[in-house]
Amino acid sequence: MTSEITLFVNPTAGRGRGARAARPAASALRDAGFSVRTVLGENAGDALARARAAVEDGTGALIAVGGDGMANLALQAVVGTGTPLGLVAVGTGNDFARALGMPLREPAAAGRMIADALKCGRVRDIDLGRAGDRWFGTVLASGFDSRVNDRGNRMRLPAGRFRYDLAMVAELAAFRPFPYRITLDGGDVREVEATLVAVGNGSSYGGGMRICPGADLTDGLFDVTVVGDCGRGTLLRVFPTVYRGSHIDHPKVTVFRAARVELAAAGITGYADGEPLGPLPLTARCVRGAVRVVGP
Q: What strand order describes the sheet that includes 269-272?
């Protein structure tokens, strides 16, 4: 493996933490003997083009510095190439890095861990989800949670996570279950009233909400969590248990496992790794061993 590696940096991640985090991460990698180049972009499309060019030029690894959005963008550049992906997680959610066991908001520690892993050959292949031409590492969200995202993305104020807390309160006021048609592995069709349906390659989203707690990045299958037609009161009682993953014990929650999931519901946007995919219907496929990652 070449000793030149690429830092793929989102300077705005975590209210500016991305730009600040690049420096200690780069220093840790250089101290370990790596030559480091940095890739930025004027926008997401430009950044992705530059990252893909670095991969095509033979960089030894692509290291995404930012949050889950930056990790998702980096996935699009390395998937299927054999180029290892590393994560310096300094965003708001960091769920992909959490799933890989990487340090969170500790860029120097992440840089040292990545350097050691590259030197020792600690890389592994993990599964990814694919919906259309978009790859994702953690969870495809749809339903109540995606409606909260929709509303939060339309709000200009306040800044940060509090915006989404307010969006959640507003969505609760207008809450109703949604009629879904769910098709598993091309045959098992279920028509249900559901609060949300989450398709998990990884276990968590939203900064540690373990919506699919049993999801395994290497088994070739999604965990599909269906939260049924519960009312506001039940939703408010169940919601806090998502951080422990114990919500799956509630009678209104069902978990399926499948390699291919088709979701259809009117007026619902799908989000994967926190990024909008577009309106349902969507089909997600779990692709075994789709990407090589650097980890502990």
A: 253-258, 222-227, 196-200, 139-143, 269-272, 275-279
**In this structure, how many other beta carbons lie within 10 angstroms of the beta carbon of residue 136?**
27
Pick the CATH number of 4-121 from 3.40.50.10420, 3.10.450.50, 3.40.50.10330, 3.90.320.10: 3.40.50.10330
Backbone angles phi, psi at 70, to 5 degrees: -70, -40
CATH number (3.40.50.2300, 2.60.40.3410, 2.60.200.40, 2.40.110.10) of 136-286 reads: 2.60.200.40
Distance CA 281, CA 264 (A): 4
The reported pTM is 0.93
Q: What is the CA radius of gyration of the chain?
A: 19
**Residue-level pLDDT, tens digit, the chain, 296 residues:** 568 999 999 766 555 566 788 899 999 999 999 999 999 877 888 889 999 999 999 999 999 999 999 999 999 999 999 999 999 999 888 999 999 999 999 999 999 999 999 999 999 999 999 999 999 999 999 999 888 877 777 777 776 666 667 877 777 777 889 999 999 999 989 999 999 999 999 999 988 999 999 999 999 999 999 999 988 888 888 888 999 999 999 999 999 999 999 999 999 999 999 999 999 999 999 999 999 999 88
